[in-house]
Design a protein that fits this description.
The chain is of the alpha/beta class. It has one domain: Nucleotidyltransferase, domain 5. It has 7 helices and 5 strands, in the order βββαβαβααααα. α2 links the parallel β4 and β5. α3 packs across α6.
Length: about 190
């Protein structure tokens, strides 16, 4: 039995207080296709609360445009600056609220897990993640733009696709002997 869904849309978000990346993957017959990728530019807002309002407005608009079935969002990493982390957490919370208002399930991924899923290396650079995504998803360089926040968001969506769209093994075996014992009619002795 498989958990593979034939058609779904995943919105990926890379939270930020200056630039917030987003990426939309449409999964059709278990094949991912990029629908949109970009950034929400928050640098022109001096007031943090205005940034939060703009995040909510833009993420709600993206949700309305692409109707995602699921949201994959990068979890904030623990840094030294507590104030920056607090602001980042607020930005993430506002993006999550926009999804929750539409009953969209949310899955949070650590940056290490996303990098590992895309490149096989949890310590990969943003550039390495972007390059690998361009290869895997056959993206043109002009599609992703100059900001790596956009490809980080797409990486969250792709990581979610990899985590959720794999066939589920119906039986697990600890050894060949275990396989033989559980499948007596399939084994020739």
């Amino acid at each position: 039995m498989s958990r593979i869904v034939k058609d779904k849309v995943i919105l990926g978000i890379d939270p930020g207080t200056n630039l917030m990346g987003y990426g939309v993957l449409h999964i059709v017959d278990s094949k991912p296709k990029v629908e949109a990728v970009g950034v929400i530019d928050l640098r022109k807002y001096a007031n943090h609360y205005l940034k939060l309002a703009h995040i909510h407005e833009r993420v709600s608009g993206i949700i309305q445009s692409y109707l995602p079935d699921e949201l994959a969002i990068e979890a904030p990493f623990f840094g030294k600056n507590v104030q920056s982390m607090l602001k980042l957490g607020r930005a993430q919370g506002v993006a999550m609220t926009a999804a929750l208002e539409r009953d969209i399930p949310i899955t949070e991924y650590a940056p290490l897990k996303i990098k590992m899923a895309i490149t096989g290396n949890g310590q990969a650079s943003k550039e390495q993640v972007a390059d690998m995504l361009k290869r895997i998803l056959k993206l043109d360089s002009d599609m992703t733009g100059p900001f790596l926040d956009a490809t980080d968001a797409l990486a969250a969506a792709y990581c979610h696709y990899l985590q959720t769209d794999r066939p589920v093994a119906t039986k697990a075996y600890s050894s060949w002997k275990d396989f033989i014992n559980k499948n007596p009619g399939k084994v020739i002795k």
